[in-house]
């Protein structure tokens, strides 16, 4: 036997305790697990599941007539396209921007970079419409940017009028939801051993290659999970759109609101709501399966 | 760590500042500044005034703050109770049962808030339970929305909780109830307070579902902010927004203090 | 500081008055050291002695406040890490968890845009070299600690670096595995004659076994450099004496040529050492060079305070003139019991005088 074999033999197969086996929850008091789940389930059913079912039933109250009417209307198809386009665009923006900013905070730290992370947590606890409100002051028709322009050129009106267009909503959504991508990414980056980055660069890898081949694969599950969450939140976003006051930016949640509250057409509102729920829940299911996978993978790495 | 030359680092930081400051720091700053001004159509606002705050802290604005605080308090307490119960019972189910509970309790996150508002409105505008037009319908909707987050936080904390503690307690002869009350819940306390803070903040800023069902005599602060902005007085709106942010931050800060205490015990 | 007068060549590391400071506190001060091509240099010291900082200065992860670092005849002080051409192995291996063993090893080659065919060939070659040829398709988490260690070494060697930096590479392994890996590192180095190795450790056994020369470090400074044998036989400072092997350090006064006084006993020592009569000095005597009984040149009498069985030997502590003298002696009938009067002795050439 060579030395090599001797050492390898000594190493033996590594037996690692699998965390999943330890993480089984303790049995419920009394042992009837499902019985204990019933009270909260009943509360959920009465307060949410049953009402949701009523919305679906209401939408079919006249057979499929309401559906045919809604699907045939231009307002609905416009809203559907606007909703999806805005959500996809905002998500892409958030993912790119969030990844870049989180990279700097985590790997090119500067004095105060830790408070940036804390600032993001605070930012997340504020409602989304604050962003639109702030943008009104910055780029509104009588806002700062236009005021500067008219002051400088003597023109009657400033050039910035994108706030009431989809671009204004997009800007607000990217601003508000980017921290939702940054937070899971910063958590994932904190898990990454800095020694890996150092070894990679001592092996001759430049920063771009390290980001691509070491950081990105490790952070990929967190990035996907954050991105999927933002996609769903953008699809559902209402307050930002409401605050821009734009007549020509109508998303599905906005359509539900205007049908129900402004037009008192509850059947149509329920139809749009049902479609919206199917869209969002479908995507959310995708998100859950992705995060489920990423957390399993994280545990396998632990 | 990633960029090793001084010049490179400064370049990266400069780009970061150019993106981060206008996009994230500026909006909050702008709202705070606007709340103290009467006009903003240049580089800087003009007409410094404290009048917006004077009106924001009396009359219907003060009432709106009080409405928001009461709603958020009730909603987060209820959400914490239901969410924690559900998370604890889910943790004791098998893999499949837990998945079902996860899916059901997280559903309100996936469903647009406007639709949650519509659903609650549709369900409680008819017998046997008529809540439409009362404050309770707002509180119910808020509770539904934030319970999902309470459930999620507590579930996550439960998976991180080392079962060795509960097992040690059981091996010492403690019954399941005793283990729950004296071991698992105290260990979960930091996460529970964090979850409560999250629920409170979300409820304070909730607008989408609220717009669908608030009665005239129960108008929360976000609705008031929207109303002010919509009728063309965004400066009053931003003063109200600052009040909203301050109230939320204050409660979050208090909760985090409790949390630190609970952690060090 | 090095007495080796070598011409600059491809390998080799040179520290030239290197000082590294964090927030005004020097963690490495005026560090001067030369590692020849093909030499294994151990940096030995307790934690916080600056040894890892010195290694990271070569790799490029810390920037010296003053001084230059050379690899071969290149001044690398201002080069980014990826341009330094070093191989590095760290304590926790830092294998990329999302890459298979083969891809981990290929990482550096691909970063250098090595043609694909050559990459595969070289990966197979180095994996074979570390005895991991059969594990190319595995993920790091499927390997034992020792196997991960081998892959980390293979990854560092794959790019044929001129210098290999090893930062406590064995400290995450258990004792049995460690001695096996130590023998293996020794074999690997013999296969790679041109590579200079900088080996950071706090374990004197690793340093003495593997290194051609050892640099002893303490509190941000280099204390002594020498071959393991020289440091062990004739340490110049008491820090080195106690850190490299175990030592009795006895306070003595000089009493003339080749003589010192310990308590009221006069002892003969072979090393002259500097200093004049009456001056205070420290006498270093290795425990295994002391024997029981009064048969040697220098005899110390006292009371046995502790007797420990250590397998091959007994460790006997005898209190002499208020100081404890420790001796490692073979098992015998004359081993004293605790409390017995005992005499120990050592030869003149086993007493080394130290000045601090």
TrEMBL record, chain A:
Residues 80-287 form the ABC transmembrane type-1 domain. Its main location: membrane. One of its GO terms (biological process) is 2-aminoethylphosphonate transport. CDD domains: TM_PBP2. It is found in: Cell inner membrane; Cell membrane. Residues 14-23 have a biased composition (Basic and acidic residues). It is a multi-pass membrane protein. It holds the Pfam family BPD_transp_1. It comes from the Bacteria. Keywords: Cell inner membrane, Cell membrane, Membrane, Transmembrane, Transmembrane helix, Transport. The keyword Cell membrane applies. Residues 1-26 are annotated as: Disordered. GO terms for cellular component: plasma membrane. The chain crosses the membrane at residues 33-53, 84-110, 122-142, 162-182, 222-246, 266-287. InterPro entries: AminoethylPonate_ABC_perm-PhnU, MetI-like, MetI-like_sf. Belongs to the binding-protein-dependent transport system permease family. NCBIfam families: PhnU, PRK15050.1. This is 2-aminoethylphosphonate ABC transporter permease subunit. It comes from Streptomyces reniochalinae.
Automatic annotation (TrEMBL), chain B:
It is a multi-pass membrane protein. The keyword Cell membrane applies. The chain crosses the membrane at residues 12-36, 67-88, 100-124, 136-154, 187-214, 234-255. It holds the Pfam family BPD_transp_1. CDD domains: TM_PBP2. Signal peptide: none annotated. The keyword NAD does not apply. GO terms for biological process: transmembrane transport. GO terms for cellular component: plasma membrane. It is found in: Cell inner membrane; Cell membrane. This is ABC transporter permease subunit. It comes from Streptomyces reniochalinae.
Automatic annotation (TrEMBL), chain C:
It is an enzyme of class 7 (translocase). Its EC number is 7.6.2.9. InterPro entries: AAA+_ATPase (IPR003593), ABC_SmlMolc_Importer (IPR050093), ABC_transporter-like_ATP-bd (IPR003439), ABC_transporter-like_CS (IPR017871), Mo/tungstate-bd_C_term_dom (IPR008995), P-loop_NTPase (IPR027417), Transp-assoc_OB_typ2 (IPR013611). One of its GO terms (molecular function) is ATP hydrolysis activity. Residues 13-244 form the ABC transporter domain. This is ABC-type quaternary amine transporter. Keywords: ATP-binding, Nucleotide-binding, Transport. GO terms for cellular component: ATP-binding cassette (ABC) transporter complex. The lineage of its organism: Bacteria, Bacillati, Actinomycetota, Actinomycetes, Kitasatosporales. The keyword Magnesium does not apply. Gene3D superfamilies: P-loop containing nucleotide triphosphate hydrolases.
